[in-house]
Amino acid sequence: MPDKIVNRVANSQLKTVDLEEFYPRGTRTIIDLKKWLFQELILKETEFRAHLKNHNWSQYKNHYIALTCSSDAIIPSWAFMLISTYLTPISKKIIVGNLNDLETSLFQEIISQINIEEYKGKSIIIKGCANKPITQTSYIQLIEKLQPIAKSIMFGEACSTVPLFKK
After folding, report:
1. Rounded CA separation 125/25 (Å)
2. Helix (H, G, I), strand (E, B) or coil at 14
3. Which of 26, 45, 46, 154 is positioned for an S-S bond with 161, CB 3.0–4.6 A?
């Protein structure tokens, strides 16, 4: 009778955290204010308001939105706030920044809601290979949450981890 193969990783006390499992589904969209500026540089309030009023906002239903301005224009705070009044009723989330900033913001909320009790005093592996855009800041936020309660933290896969922290 051949020896039985035992999965020691599955039977160990290691806890794996895979941020990709928490990745929120939905379309990510950048809205560039440049297109609503006079000569792509100057915000003229009356024209700006007219552009916003005539814009098809329904196309952003259930989107995660990053508001930005790719030109060197100085955009007053109220402009971003005004745009958000159109997006708030239909979008899932709005930030000012780029897509990386958006992903970081999404994961900040997700990580803050993780119940850390199951990780208390355990050796933790933070899964490293992801097909989704998980930012470096998101991994750091996870470390900040887990380090005070973890026995140890490693990064990678169970078969080849990089040690990061040990009490």
Report:
1. 24
2. coil
3. 154
pTM reported for the whole predicted model? 0.84
Residue ranges of domains in the chain: 8-24+103-166, 28-91
Question: Angle of helix 136-146 relative to helix 99-112, nearest 10 degrees?
Answer: 20
Q: Tell me the C-alpha to C-alpha distance, in Å, between residue 140 and each of 51, 117, 146.
A: 40, 19, 10
**Tokens 């490693």, residue located:** 154
Interval 83-139: pLDDT, tens: 999 999 999 999 999 999 999 999 999 999 999 999 999 999 999 887 888 999 999
* Contacts of range 138-142, beta carbons closer than 8 Å, 24 or more positions apart: 138/19, 138/103, 138/104, 138/107, 138/108, 138/111, 139/19, 141/107, 141/108, 141/111, 142/17, 142/19, 142/111, 142/114
- Cβ atoms of 149 and 120 closer than 8 Å: yes
Distance CA 63, CA 87 (A): 9
